[in-house]
Structures are given as C-alpha cells and as structure tokens.
Design brief:
With 250 residues, this protein is of the alpha/beta class. It has helices spanning 73-86, 105-115, 130-133, 150-153, 159-169, 186-200, 221-230, 243-247; strands spanning 5-6, 8-15, 25-31, 52-56, 64-68, 71-72, 93-97, 121-125, 142-146, 173-180, 205-209, 237-239.
Length: 250
C-alpha cells in the first residue's frame, strides 16, 4: 500500500458523542485495524480489512455506497469537499478515528494537510503510538487520547506508552478519556490523574461510564461520583457517557 491510499471502514457525517467536542457535527473517517484488543471495543472486526469502505453520499442521510479498499486520498477529499460546498457550515471538524488511525501515520502525513484545508482535524486515538504521532502534530487541531485501564479494557500495562504519548500530544489541544466500569479500581484513577498532572494538570480528563450492548451503564452512579472526587486534583474533570448511542447516531 502506498502513502496515497489507506484501508478504511467508513466515511460518514454524524454527531460527536464522546469527549470535550460532544454534541458537535463532524465528518468521521474510520480507519481499519488496531494495535490493541480492548474488551469493551464498540467497533469489532477491526483486525479484518474490509473489501470496501462505505462512503455516505449525502451527509447524515445514511445513503452509503461501497468504494474498494484501499481508498485514495483524492477520492476522500472530493467527498468531504462536496459536503463543505453543498452543506456549508454544518461540520465543526473532521474526526480521524478507528480502530487506531495512527497505524496509517505515513498516509496521514500526506492526507491531513489537504483535509485540513477543508475543516479542522480531530484525532481519536488509543494513545500508545507516540512515535507515529510526532510528525503529525503540525497538522492536528484536537487530540482525544485514551488511557486504557487494565480493569475495564483487559489490556496489559500501558502506562509508559500513555505517558510518552501525552507529552507529545500536549503540543495541541488534547484531552484524556478513561472508560470506567464497576471493576475499575481507585488506584487506576489515581495513577491516571498523576500521569496527566505530570504533563499538565490543565489537560481535561473525561470519565466515560461504559455503555453495555443493551444500553445500560456498567457502573453505579455512586461509584462514578467517587471516581470524579478522586480526580478532583486536576483542573477539569467531566463525566460523559457515549451520548451518540442515546441519540441513535452512528
């Protein structure tokens, strides 16, 4: 695969349901593949590259059509450009998400400067690939990075990777998201807060209660408040569930 094309899952227009940009309309570019395997992943099948990427012809109308993978930057640029011309002002930014989009760092280095001519760029990432992030920093406007807690995610110890990533990401407007459930332990919240404070305690922390497949929340209201209290040493701590699921958005 050359730097001008990448394997993607879908490109669509919807409402951002997580993090500090919650409620804003975005153009979503979902890349395939991930370097982690989180137990709560809401985009299963990311290890398989689909034969086609689904493009939404009309923003928000779910009139999808298939484009063979890998997708060329020119094809994607033309689609987003048609949205900005035909429906000016409806999108706040472009969400580059996955999977883990930084697996395509070489492609993004070519793509992002062009896409940023249309809209600001928001990177959603698992926060582990700092070397891939570094050359992309000049082309990003917002970064939402996860800290994967071992209890909720089932992932191994990633603290060093997250620390290195946040130091690079702090050059841009960044926030940290932590998925919590009833199994989350207090030391995990305390360690996450210490990691953030080491870089900049003004970086917002989002505590995201896990949403189960049936739509229920996997943590009690009291436990959620207790975790928010533990994180009160940071300047900004918010509790935000996956609101797009409540709204029936993609």
């Amino acid at each position: 695969m050359n730097s001008g094309s990448a394997s993607m899952v879908e490109c669509f227009s919807s409402i951002q349901g997580e993090g500090v940009l919650v409620g804003l309309r975005q153009a979503f570019l979902r890349f395939s593949g991930c370097n982690l395997s989180c137990s709560f992943c809401d985009t299963p099948g990311m290890t398989r590259v689909p034969d086609e990427c689904l493009f939404e012809l009309t923003p928000g109308r779910r009139d999808f059509f298939g484009v063979p993978n890998p997708v060329a930057c020119d094809r994607l640029f033309s689609l987003i450009q048609s949205w900005t011309v035909g429906w000016p002002g409806i999108h706040h930014s472009i969400s580059v998400t996955g999977g883990e989009p930084l697996l395509y760092a070489a492609q993004l280095l070519e793509w992002l400067p062009r896409l940023r001519e249309l809209l600001p760029i928001y990177l959603e990432t698992n926060g582990t690939l700092s070397d891939a992030l570094s050359p992309l920093i000049p082309h990003l406007d917002y970064i939402g990075m996860d800290i994967k807690l071992p209890s909720a995610s089932g992932c191994p110890d990633l603290w060093q990777e997250h620390r290195a990533f946040l130091k690079v990401a702090s050059q841009r407007s960044v926030f940290v998201k932590v998925v919590i459930d009833q199994s989350t332990e207090e030391w995990e919240i305390e360690r996450s807060c210490a990691l953030i404070a080491e870089v900049d305690r003004a970086i917002p922390l989002i505590l995201q209660p896990m949403t189960l497949p049936d739509g229920s929340i996997a943590i009690s209201p009291l436990r959620t408040l207790q975790f928010q209290e533990l994180a009160s040493g940071l300047n900004e701590v918010r509790v935000i569930p996956q609101t797009h699921k409540f709204m029936g958005q993609l």
